[in-house]
Design a protein that fits this description.
The chain is built from 18 helices and 14 strands. The chain is an alpha/beta fold. The strands form three sheets. The chain has an eight-stranded parallel barrel with strand order 1-2-3-4-5-6-7-8, surrounded by eight helices.
Length: about 525
């Protein structure tokens, strides 16, 4: 494709892989229902492609990909597949009911990967790539191919592979910086060379998939756009393997804010960036760092007196984006104990939550209980309440937190009495001692539940400011086989939140179960 042809393409395709590469984050794990909730939010966000998962990896992932393909309309629905027939066929079976299906095939191309991971020669790998794309194209007219570790691949070999897979039917060729090795100047030059050296590149969209090991994923992705790439792959909140992928919110807002420089933009509904970020953080159990670009709690806060003075005189002195444009609510609307059901439903609707009459009836007493504990209930409190509601509803067939009483301090041995609802509908109460109140709570719960697990991580964050803030507790547990499961709980009482989070993690362990395959993959 000539440079003049590239310039005519004024849109960057946004390829979201939160449900695939994002779920490869260490300690992550989503239920099929949680994946569907994220996919529905990504639909509202307006992403062009949803990589819904790796259908061949497990029955659970196949189920999630298939449901998303059948029920999510608008974006292209994609499944990853290794360059083996079984993976490709499973991917097609999972996505074939989508209105716009895509199969994404990947295969190592660098010398180090071919020698140590694949243990095959360059010609064998080339043949495998062509065969895989040919098979995928026999199922689906939209096929993407990724030469894994492209930035450490011999460029001449990379050009050969790309030309061959395009001839075999690839409609998108993705250039992944799999280990986050490249830099913007180098990566931009590689993308430019692909347009110059691959004769049939005009038949395919050039995509990039950058990892963040050196903190350069977003910068590398934007350098690729400057040099003609028209699809960017990444994750909400920068999730993914190791240090993660390019943060889609950063790439999107860079294109939006600096359209004068890049000459292109996406078709994303940017006001859904904030809600998307918060949902992903909640379901994955990974808190957003306060100073995270675009979506962090401090992203639009001004602490310096000089900055505050200038900002109050003219916002644009220190803000290059409007907070509302990314769905950020710095001045959250406040509700209280006198607010009724209609007001609660209306405010939750403004926040993107649509409740049935039954759901509202179930939620309202919990809202009133929260309003009795707090003088003001903010949007952030309501989001925490909804998160707690979803966590309970998705695992309500398992163990249920019913109550806790603790005795703690430096003059007594900490103890906790915990009541847990059992799957058979009965309840059980147990008292245990520990090194602290949370340890005692967990030891009491351990005497009630099956299977057993080890707590590996405990973190607390406040949802809002103030002494009466809701505390969000994230707990990770490990089962006997070393699999990690995350649980979250929220309450104005940290001990209660801890008990909820621990039981939530155990419930998720029961729902998700261990991986049912030994397949390993990356990109």
């Amino acid at each position: 494709m000539a440079e003049t042809d590239v310039a005519k393409t004024d849109k960057v395709i946004i390829f979201d892989t939160t449900l695939r590469d994002g779920e490869q984050s260490a300690g992550a794990g989503l239920t099929p229902d949680e994946k569907f909730r994220i996919a529905r939010q990504l639909q509202k966000l307006g992403v062009d492609v949803i990589e819904a998962g790796f259908a061949a990896s497990s029955p659970g992932d196949f189920e999630a990909v298939q449901r998303i393909a059948r029920e999510i309309d608008g974006p292209v629905i994609c499944s990853l597949a290794r360059a083996v027939p079984g993976d490709i066929d499973a991917a097609w079976d999972a996505i074939k009911d989508a209105k716009r299906p895509r199969i994404h095939v990947f295969l190592s191309s660098s010398e180090i990967h071919m020698a140590h991971q694949m243990r095959k020669g360059a010609e064998d790998i080339l043949g495998m790539a062509v065969d895989a794309v040919t098979r995928a194209a026999s199922h689906c007219k939209d096929v993407e191919f990724s030469p894994m570790d492209a930035t450490r691949t011999d460029p001449e070999y990379l050009y050969r592979v790309l030309e061959a897979v395009i001839d075999a039917g690839a409609t998108t060729v993705n250039i992944p910086d799999t280990v986050g090795y490249s830099n913007p100047v180098e990566f931009g030059a590689l993308i430019k060379s692909v347009f110059e050296r691959v004769p049939n590149i005009h038949k395919a969209t050039v995509s990039v998939h950058c990892h963040n090991d050196l903190g350069l994923a977003a910068a590398n992705s934007l350098a690729a756009v400057e040099n003609g790439a028209r699809q960017v792959e990444g994750c909400i909140n920068g999730l993914g393997e190791r240090a993660g992928n390019a943060s889609l919110e950063e790439v999107i807002m860079a294109l939006e804010t600096r359209e004068d420089h890049y000459g292109t933009k996406s078709s994303i509904n940017t006001e859904e960036i904030g809600p998307s970020s918060r949902l992903v953080a909640d379901l994955f159990g990974f808190a957003i760092q306060p100073n995270k670009a675009i979506v962090g709690q401090n992203a639009f806060r001004h602490g310096s007196g000089i900055h505050q003075d200038a900002y109050l005189k003219e916002r644009t002195t220190f803000e290059i984006m409007e907070p509302e444009s990314v769905g950020w609510r710095g001045e959250a609307i406040v509700m209280g104990k006198l607010s009724g059901r209609a007001g609660l439903r209306s405010r939750l609707g403004d926040l993107g939550y649509e409740l049935s009459d039954e759901e509202l009836a179930d939620l309202f007493p919990k809202y009133k209980g929260l309003a009795d504990q707090k003088r003001e209930v903010t949007d952030f409190d309501l989001q925490a309440l909804m998160s707690e509601q979803h966590r309970f509803s998705e695992t309500d067939q398992q163990y249920r937190f019913e109550g806790v009483k603790v005795e703690a301090g430096d003059m007594v041995t900490p103890s906790a009495t915990v009541t847990v609802g059992l799957p058979n509908g009965e309840s059980k109460t147990v008292t245990a001692q520990g090194t602290g109140p949370v340890d005692a709570v967990c030891k009491a719960v351990d005497q009630i539940v099956e299977p057993k697990c080890n707590l590996t991580e405990f973190a607390v964050a406040s949802v809002t400011d103030g002494i009466d803030a809701i505390g969000e507790v994230t707990i990770r547990v490990e089962d006997a086989d070393g699999h990690i499961y995350a649980g979250r709980g929220g309450d104005t009482d940290i001990i209660v939140a801890s008990a909820k989070a621990y039981i939530n993690a155990i419930n998720r362990m029961g729902v998700l179960g261990p991986d049912q395959t030994n397949i390993t993959f990356t990109e």
